[in-house]
Amino acid sequence: MKKVILGLVALFAFQAGYSQSSKSTDFLRWKMRLRVVGVVPDEKSDVTTIGGKVDVSNEIIPELDFTYFFTKNIATELILGTSKHEVKTIGSDISAVGGPTNYNVDLGTVRLLPPTLTVQYHFNQEKDNVFKPYLGAGVNYTIFYDIKAGNIVKDIEYKNSLGYAFQAGFDLMVTDKFFINADIKKMFLKTDVTVDASNLAPNLSIPAKVDLNPLVLGMGVGMKF
């Protein structure tokens, strides 16, 4: 985790230094955006021991991103945002601990921090164009933190993971420096989950593999500098 974060910091430090030393003055190399985004997980899961499937709540969060342009068309973007989700299983069989055969198990909440770095191609970059679309692809490293197991099980562990992402969007220029942005990202991320339910039965551990694969829909404003 530390290596990934340090790598991202080093990359943007390099870009900042390159920007300062560049003699090109025909376009601004940096963009910053502030968006409101909806995070919509598309879960797939394999829950052993008790069966059922994992359900993760949709959320709306703020997001900040920075874009650096190597050329007028090719850029890289670092996307920063964190979300808090409610987690539960649906249709689990907990008859072995005296419960029903079809039960939704509350697994509390967890926060996700998935810093995402994409490489983008921007179209219509001529100065007079108002509509400037782009496409991008890259990687994310998802960190699970502030885990609260709820009132049913004893504890939950989530494994951090490396994934990838695709995006499409556009900037709608209002002035030479300020713009409105719309963006959609499909992120592919997964985690191994271990539920400690030893409070319900001795040594009861419930492993699960969960693909989250959220769709991230954003709208916001930005500036060039």
UniProtKB/TrEMBL annotation:
Superkingdom classification of source: Bacteria
Name used for this protein in its record: OmpW family protein
Lineage: Bacteria, Pseudomonadati, Bacteroidota, Flavobacteriia, Flavobacteriales
